[in-house]
Amino acid sequence: MTTAPLVPARRARGRAGTGSGLPGWVFIPAVLGGVFIVLPLVAMLVRVQWSQFWELVTSESSVAALQLSLRTSAVSTLLCVLLGAPMALVLARARFPGLRLARSLVLLPLVLPPVVGGIALLYTFGRQGLLGRSLDVLGLRIAFSTTAVVIAQTFVALPFLVLSLEGSLRTAGRRYEAVAATLGANPTTVLRRVTIPLVLPGLLSGAVLAFARALGEFGATLTFAGSLQGVTRTLPLEIYLQRESDADAAVALSLVLVVVAVLIVLATRGRAGEGSW
Amino acid sequence: MSRRPGAVPSSVRATVTALWVATVVAACSSTGTTAASSPNSAAASSPSGTEGAITVFAAASLKKTFTELGDTYEKENPGSTVTFNFAGSSDLVTQLIGGAPADVFASADTANMTKATAAGVVAGQPVNFATNTLTIITKPGNPKGIGSFADLNKAGVDVVVCAPQVPCGSAAEKIEAAAGVTLKPVSEENSVTDVLNKVVNGDADAGLVYVTDASAAGDAVTTVGFPESTKVVNTYPIATLTGAAQPASATKFVGLVTGPEGQQVLAAAGFKPAP
Questions:
Q1: Taking the model in full, what pTM does it have?
Q2: Residue B112's closest CA among B51, B167, B53?
């Protein structure tokens, strides 16, 4: 979907007079789309009660939720890197029957509604679940614990890292790896000294995206992990709950989440700025 | 790595992929969060201008009974249709104040009806039509042997309740005060349905839900009554709305709910009559 519109755009370069090589009318829907994204954020900013803002975002429950969110998202991102990077390597480099199917399955959490993910996780790790029953016998309880939050976040964020890194691996190609191998480097050395350094930007932007997705995770956590201050109630859950009784607090906390999201986007875009953008 | 010729395009491609993925996330997560309010958009697009077509905003706990009463209404008034929007009472009030078109509002507590009245969306005087109390539910057969409200604090019993911010949670808090017992729940859920599901799924040992929820769950749970429950009674008010496109039909529907037919359906689901 991304490459198809690029082709005519490139062909038109130099013909139209907008400097961008694009026909002028393209800017109309593009600007509309931009407004569509920015306007709701502006609407939210307008609603923020600035006089109470600091008080609302520093309340005990807000701080507990933010800390829990940052902590769990960091752990989830680490898990995504540890599990996702090898998955991306296998998907990008290995050839085996069923590869296409494997890739589709990896992307599944991306297209599942989060609440469905939560239900699936419940039937896996819940006390009556597929694995949960055995874990319960061993005395390990996952439901209603911070572990459940991390599991839910990792489940939904993993595809982002895999997709991002796999794209980088394919773009980087195998030339340098092949050269290193002919020079006598063993596969582990090639991976460590050639492949990983080559795709590090992709790995980093994938990790940032996974972190962002983990931070915003709501549906699966609510369904699977429950909601208790300091244990499972992350910032999105806190916002959803506050909205029931105190709309001002919900808006203030939403703004905090937006600021974190903007910082994340800037971090990713900033790295892209080193390239030709 | 920036010295490597392959590194620059790979970072660009990575970012393109990243942005594309971000777009997908945005689309996905927005689908996730708006799903809860989608019944509203269905209700909003209902042809409220049509003769006899009314839109009823009702508390989630009324889903079963009101759906049944809607069918009754449509049968008794041929050619008429009733469209429902079932959600948490506070969500419904927010939607009504935001201008959602509706003819009737039935709330699960008086606080939310008061909020709607204060905002000027309620026409006339709300009528209390039912009451509900909380009950303890456990796994079928009550394996942890819970016999009283205080038993919920027994070691090894995982209790789930509603968060104090929602009506069922504020009721639970009042019961705790009345019973002199402070619960240590493993989770405070956003809705009574979430509490019910966690007990039905077996992830929690016990929960506090409305008598009507317990009755709707049937054999999936065991109900344990306790004396303190009668100290906190939730009253359900219903009212026609100032924005009603069909005020006469709206009044007729309210009459059905408060009349003998409506009361019978509500009683069968475990609701008690309003005093």
A1: 0.75
A2: B167
CATH entry 3.40.50.720 includes domain A71-93+112-272: no
Set of chain B residues whose Cβ sits within 8 Å of the Cβ of A240: 190
- Residues in chain B within 8 Å Cβ distance of A162: none
Q: Which two tokens stand for residue B20?
A: 């594309």
Per-residue model confidence as pLDDT tens digits over A15-27: 445 578 888 899 9
**Tokens at residue A260, please?**
């974190």
CATH 3.40.190.10 placement within chain B: 37-131+235-268, 134-231
> What digits encode the pLDDT tens for the residues A238-254?
999 888 778 888 999 99
Q: Is ipTM > 0.90 here?
A: no
Residue B61 has pLDDT above 70, yes or no: yes
| CATH class for the region spanning B134-231 | alpha beta
Say if CB B165 and CB A239 are below 8 A apart: no
Q: Which two tokens stand for residue A12?
A: 């038109």
CB-CB neighbours of A96 under 10 Å: 7
Q: Closest partner residue to A227 among B7, B17, B189, by Cβ?
A: B189
CATH of domain B37-131+235-268: 3.40.190.10
Per-residue pLDDT at B98: 86
Q: Show the tokens assigned to A139.
A: 């005395």
**Spatial separation of the C-alpha atoms in residues B115 and A201, rounded to whole Å:** 52
From the CA of A198, how many Å to the nearest CA of chain B? Answer: 6
